[in-house]
Amino acid sequence: MDLQERVRLKKADRNELYTETPPFPTTNFLLELSNACNHACLFCAHQKMKRKVGKMSGEMVESVLRQAYDLGAREVGMYATGEPFLVPELPEYIRLAKDMGYTYVYLTSNGSLAGADPGGGGRGGGQREVLRQRAGAEAVRVHPRSGRF
To answer: Which of 45, 68, 73, 78 has its CA 20 to 30 A from that of 27?
Structure first.
């Protein structure tokens, strides 16, 4: 989505946006692999979540990735209200997205389970960067080749 499209959506009639068929983000979307989290950050809405804790099935992840790609998405963030590193299949899902042709795969994490090498042979599975967020701190980028912040 380019800047002009973002401005158009900001100025759009909200009734057009809040419908059963809202406009699909054309290049980027977030995929909530799980809504489970191992932290209780004060700034996070996770604490107020009423949904049952669970995770997406592998079949659902593949289906959503494929449908979004077919609709034009080329970037996917694998996070929302949960901690992505709690999902054992995370490296497999990252590879699946890359194999489908996604050009940018990223996630946001509290960082507690990322390990020293989030983009290499560790739990990360090859995403280009991890945004690490802690309570009361700015988000920092973990550079996978060096493991440094």
So the answer is: 45
